[in-house]
Design brief:
Layout (H helix, E strand, L loop, with lengths): L12 E4 L9 H14 L8 H5 L4 H11 L6 H18 L7 H8 L5 E5 L3 H10 L8 E4 L11 H9 L7 E5 L2 H9 L3 E5 L5 H4 L4 E3 L5 H14 L1
Helix pairs in contact: 1-4, 3-4
Length: about 230
């Protein structure tokens, strides 16, 4: 990968994805998909979890229905998926490693926002339960005329609300779908989580295993100290 020297720069705003980036909810989505499949007596095909990662829940319902050969169940599967997910999050709201610390430090110096494919009430509930909602000036989700990721709408809107230029803002994402969305909005992108393929990882400026990586923490402290 050719790093675009993200650590020699400091952002004017940061926009975070929620699921799998701030909140450890991807496992909840996986469990919710399994429960929704089971509720209708269906089974996912091999590799379904990876194909569904980062996909809007309504589109995921359609994907579940199509791959099961039951296209008429798309809406029912989507609603079951969301219902199971919200129940699981209520039971176990956990942040990703390093996420809370990064948010708390960065919020002292630059505006923060969230751009998500999840419904607004889900994102708000997750962030509130984790004690992070107050750090974000804006929460932007798909819907009401905004197309879901990989379209750039949610990131472009979040950047505009933060009153900065896209090229001066950084997105933090865990999915290739989200990286594509932020890149299309003209932002620099920090990828986090399990490394995708080389071709996919090159869409991000840098890809780290977690937000707790020492080099990331040192970088954030450096540019925040420089602004004091």
């Amino acid at each position: 990968m050719t790093t675009r020297h993200i650590f020699t720069w400091s952002p004017a705003a940061i926009v975070f994805d929620c699921d799998g980036t701030l909140m450890d909810t991807e496992r909840h989505w996986q469990d919710a998909r399994s429960r929704a499949f089971g509720e209708f007596g269906l089974k996912p095909r091999p590799g379904f979890a990876e194909r569904a990662k980062g996909v809007h829940y309504t589109e995921c319902g359609s994907l579940m229905a199509e791959e099961s050969g039951k296209p008429h169940l798309a809406d029912d599967l989507a609603q079951a998926l969301l219902r199971h997910f919200m129940a699981l999050v209520a039971e176990d709201p956990v942040t990703m490693p390093g996420a809370a610390a990064l948010v708390r430090i960065a919020a002292r110096h630059v505006p923060l926002a969230v751009a998500s494919n999840c419904p607004l009430d889900v994102v708000e509930s997750c962030l509130t339960r984790a004690g992070l909602r107050g750090y974000f000036a804006h929460v932007v989700v798909a819907g009401d005329g905004l197309l879901p990721k990989p379209h750039p709408d949610v990131y472009a809107t979040a950047v505009r609300l933060c009153s900065v230029r896209p090229e001066d803002a950084m997105a933090v994402e865990d999915s290739v779908t989200g990286v594509e969305s932020a890149r299309s909005a003209g932002m620099r992108v920090l990828g986090v989580g399990p490394r995708p393929t080389d071709e996919e990882v090159d869409r991000a400026d840098l890809w780290l295993r977690t937000l707790a990586e020492p080099e990331l923490q040192a970088w954030v402290h450096a540019w925040t100290e420089g602004e004091d």
